[in-house]
């Protein structure tokens, strides 16, 4: 019984995430975090344009809160909408923008390189874009473009931000994956040298005679 309830809770959470992602698509969906608290369920929604989610006098956010209670059975949902200070480093937002560019008729390589440049210009240590689908031919193929550092395994892999989006074009559906290694990511192979402070150096030579220093 407990296992069945556990599965049902995860399915409900997945459906909720998909619905909120679709609801906030026009506002630039950047991520979602669902937390259980003693007061209810806290939902932190990160978007590029919070005003489109909140609505006039909070009308949209109120409708979304009511729908979570009636449709998904969320107990006392508390929605917090945050804007992303740097959307160019948000993998979900950049994946969506790339998908929109492909739907607008941009060539996939041109769109991918333009997106990659925006990410790196914002300070990212590395980025990778994967586009798969019918990219100018009858047969589907997969293109991967990488710049800078991207980690594929181990602990550093958890530092990579991953975003997904889908572009609906005339030839067919194109899948877009964007991976970003943020500028504040600390990698194991990065070693920094700290220069000693001036007062520490002076303290070490304090009390020594001229003869000691010459030796």
Beta-strand residue percentage:
25-35%
Spatial strand order of the main sheet: 5-4-7-6
Shape: globular
Number of alpha- plus pi-helical segments: 7
CATH topology of the largest domain: Ribosomal protein S3 C-terminal domain
Q: Please, what is the oligomeric state?
A: single chain
Largest sheet: 4 strands, antiparallel
Written as H for each helix and E for each strand, in order along the chain, the element string is: HEEHHEHHEEEEHH
Number of domains: 2
Kindly report the name of the CATH homologous superfamily of the largest domain: Ribosomal protein S3, C-terminal domain
Kindly provide the name of the CATH class of the largest domain.
Answer: Alpha Beta
The computed structural class is: alpha+beta
Distance between the termini: 80 Å
| Helix percent band | 25-40%
E-strand count: 7
Going by CATH, the architecture of the largest domain would be 2-Layer Sandwich
Radius of gyration: 24 Å
Which stretches of 5+ consecutive residues score pLDDT under 50? none
Secondary structure: elements and pairs:
Blueprint: H1 2-23, E1 29-37, E2 40-47, H2 50-54, H3 59-71, E3 77-83, H4 91-103, H5 108-121, E4 126-133, E5 141-148, E6 161-168, E7 173-181, H6 198-205, H7 210-214
Parallel strand pairs: 2-3
Antiparallel strand pairs: 1-2, 4-5, 4-7, 6-7
Helix pairs in contact: 4-5
